[in-house]
Amino acid sequence: MTTTLRPVRDEDHDALFAWQCDPAGIRMAAFTREDPSDRAAFDAHQHRVRTDPAIRHRAVERDGVLVGTVAAFTMEGDREVTYWVDPAHWGEGIATDALRLLVAEEPERPLFGRTAVHNTGSRRVLEKCGFVVVGEDSGWAHGVGAQTAELVLRLDA
């Protein structure tokens, strides 16, 4: 099976929105939009992400089928990565493959990844791609409805 990255297209939005409304995905991601079911907010966010040249936002395909997204963006001066995979494809190595591909095309270092402490799968993805834990943070997580601890991971090379 081959994982590839391509630019996100308008026709991807319905699938991306559906995945980001999945209750299990919301709980795992934890740090989501206040109302993940707000399609107007989702569309506004997608427009902002797709038109900002500083954001590297890619659709993830497995054998030509859309299965997720991966992105690099700058927040508070740090270059960060994020990814989201269709819950129907969790556990297939897609997030790891996609992040490796993104890291290869993203020249800026260091890169940071954040994951809710309870999201051990996401931590494994980051660590398989060379990220190491450098600290902890916490914040209000809409996905779990409470203050939630998160790990901060860093990739230097």
UniProtKB/TrEMBL annotation:
Residues 3-157 form the N-acetyltransferase domain. It comes from the Bacteria. Pfam families: Acetyltransf_3 (PF13302). This is GNAT family N-acetyltransferase.
